[in-house]
Amino acid sequence: MSATATISQSPLVQGCGLPPFAEITPDQVEPAFRHLLADLKQQLDILEANVEPTWSGLVEPLERLTERLHWSWGILNHLMAVQNSPELRIAYEKVQPQVVQFMNTLGQSKPIYNAFKALRASRTWVTLESAQQRIVEAAIRDAKLSGVGLEGEARERFNAIQMQLAELATKFSNHLLDATTAFSLSLTTKAEIEGLPSSLLSLAAQAARAAGEENATPEHGPWHITLDFPSYFPFMQHSTRRDLREKLYKAYITRATVGELDNNPLIDIILELRQELAQLIGFENFAELSLASKMAKNVQAVEKLLEELRQASYDAAVKDLEALKVFAKAKGAAEADNLQHWDISFWAERQQEEKFAFTAEELHPYFPLPQVLDGLFGLVKRLFGVTVTPADGQAPVWHEDVRYFQISDKHGNAIAYFYLDPYSRPAEKRGGAWMDVCIHRRKIKENGITSIRLPVAYLICNQTPPVDDKPSLMTFDEVETLFHEFGHGLHHMLTKVDYTGAAGINNVEWDAVELPSQFMENWCYDRPTLFGMAKHYETGEPLPEHYYQKLLAARNYMSGSAMLRQIHLSSVDLELHYRYRPGGKETPVDVRQRIAKTTTVLPPLPEDGFLCAFGHIFEGGYAAGYYSYKWAEVLSADAFAAFEEAGLGDEQAIHDTGRRYRDTVLALGGSKHPMEVFQAFRGREPSTTALLKHNGLLPAV
Fold first, then answer.
1. What's the pLDDT tens digit per position in 80-139?
2. Where are the alpha helices (DSSP H) in 108-150?
3. How far, in Å, CA of 278 to CA of 299, rounded?
4. CB-based contacts of 628: which residues, under 8 Å, 6+ apart?
5. Could you confirm whether 353 is annotated as catalytic?
6. Given 485, 514, 619, 633, the catalytic residue
7. What's the rounded mean pLDDT across residues 178-206?
8. How far apart are CA 632 and CA 678, in angstroms?
9. CA triplet 651, 657, 659: central angle to 5 degrees?
C-alpha cells in the first residue's frame, strides 16, 4: 500500500460521520491536513473553472468542499479543547496557518463571488426557499466584508491591515497579561490579612511560593495578592484594610497604561486602522461594518435600546449606592458618607451576606448531576415534546466520562444526538463551558433517494467530578450553565432546516445567537422545574423553601448597578467605533469620561485607564458589538415572558407556547432574519419590559 493511500484512509480525512476519536493521534495531523488541503485546493480550482450560477452548480459543490474541511478542522479544534497535549499543540500550530490561508483564498475567490451574484440576479432566484436565499445573501455579504471586491493596491492594503490588526490584538493582549502579572501586593502580618477567606489565603501563599518565598503557608504567610481576578476580586470583597483595597484598586485600573506595556498608543492605531478598513469596503465607520452582519440594523437601533435600559437602571443604581451608604453607616464605617470605588465590593458583600444569609456551599447537596439532568430532560419534554434517552456505547468517545444521548420526537423517531462531557480535567481540558457542532443537519440525495442527516452536538461543562462514592454535586451557577449550553444545543438539534448553511445556529446573527441559551436559564428559577430536580442526594428531601426564596431575592441584588455597568461599556465601545475620529479634539479617554457622566454613579478616577484593559473590544471579536450581550438578553427575557403570560401553572398553555417556540426560534435556525423569527413566535417586535421586570427594575405588571 502506498503512503498516499494510507493518508487518504487516515481517520482525520474520513470527512463524514461520527469521529473515530480513539484512532486519532497527533502524528497523523500534519500529513492528513497536507493531503486534505492539497486535495481541496485542486477541487476549488476545478469548481472555479466550471462554476455555474445555480444552486446545484455552485452551492452544493461548495458545501461539499467546505464540509470536508470543517469536519476535519472541527475534530482537531475539539480535541485541542478537551484532550490537549504538547504533541497535539505542536501539530495544531503547524497546520493552522495553512488552514487560515486556504479559508482566505476561498473567501476572496472572484469566480465564486461572481457566481453568487449571478445566482442572486437570475430568473431561478424566486424559486429558491427562504433558507437558500439567506445562504446566498450571506455568502455575498461575507465575501464583500472579506474584501473580495477590491483590486490591486486597495486589496493589498486591506489584507495588510487585517494582518496588522491581528498582530496588534496579540500585542494588546500580551501587554495586559504582562502588566497584570508584574504587580503584586506582599502581605506579612496578621493585621494585613484581616477578613480574608481561607481559600484566598491558600491562593496568596501559593502565589508567594511561586515568587520565591519557599516557606510561605496559608496560616503564616507571607501572602502575595495579585491583579489576577481570582486573587484581586475576593480581596476587594473581603479585606477590612481600606488602605490596602485602595492601593490594589488603583493598581488594577492603571494596568497597561505606562512605559513599555502602555496600550494607549495601540488603541489609537487599532481605531485608526479599523476606520480605514471600513472605508476601504464602502462603510462610513467601523460600527456600520460591524453591524452589517448583526441583527441590529443600525447604530440608532442599538443606541435606542441602550438609552431605554440606561433610563431604567440609572436611578436604581443611585439607590443601590445610597442603600450601601446607609448600611455602612449602620455598621459604624467612618467612610460611609463618602464611599469610594474601593469600598463598593466590600460593603456590597457584607450587605449581601446579611440579606440573603446563605452560601453557595449549602446548596451543593441538592444538585447532583444525574438529578439535574432528569430535571432538564423533563423540562424539554414538557416544553417541546421531545424525549432524551441515553445512547451510551453507540458512538466513539474521547474520554470514559463522556456520555452520548439521543433526542426523539413524540413518535419515538430519532431527530438528533449529543455528547455530554461534564467534568473538569485541568491537565487536558480548557475551562469554561460551551456547545459545539459535531454534525450539521442536512438533506442528502444518493442514488435518487433523499434522506436527512441528523445533527449531533458537543456539550462541554467543567464541574466537580464524582468524589469517592458521592455523585457530582453542582453549584447553582453550574446548573444555570448546563441549562444555558443545552439551550444552544437545542438550537442546533431541533432545527428543521435541511440546508447546512442555515441549519441550527448557522447563519444566525451574532447578537441573536444567545437567545435560546439565555432563555433556558430562566427555567432554573421556575418553581416546578427547580423543585423537580433539587433534592438532597442522600436523604431525597426537597430543597427547603427558604433557600428558594433567597435564590429569587439574590438574583436581583444590585441589578441596577450591574445593568448600568454593561451599558457604560457598550456605549463607550459604540462611540469609539462610530463618532470618534482619531487625531481629533478628543482622545479615547476623553470619550469615555464624557460617556461616564450619564452611565456611571461614581465617576471614574482621573487616572482610570480601563480602556487599556478592555480586551473584549481590542483583542476579541466584540468591537462595536459589546452591546450584543444586552441585545440577546432582551430577546430571551421577552421570549420567556410569553410563557409567564400564558401562565406557568397552566400545563396546556405551556405545551402550546412551547410548541410555538420550538417551531419558530428553534426550528427556523438561520433560514430567516432573527427579527422575523422572533415576530413569528411573539407576534410583535421585542420589548425591554420583560428584561427590566425580571431584573426587578420595573414594577411587576
1. 999 989 899 899 989 988 998 898 889 889 999 999 999 999 999 999 999 999 999 999
2. 110-121, 130-145
3. 15
4. 294, 510, 511, 514, 622
5. no
6. 485
7. 93
8. 11
9. 100
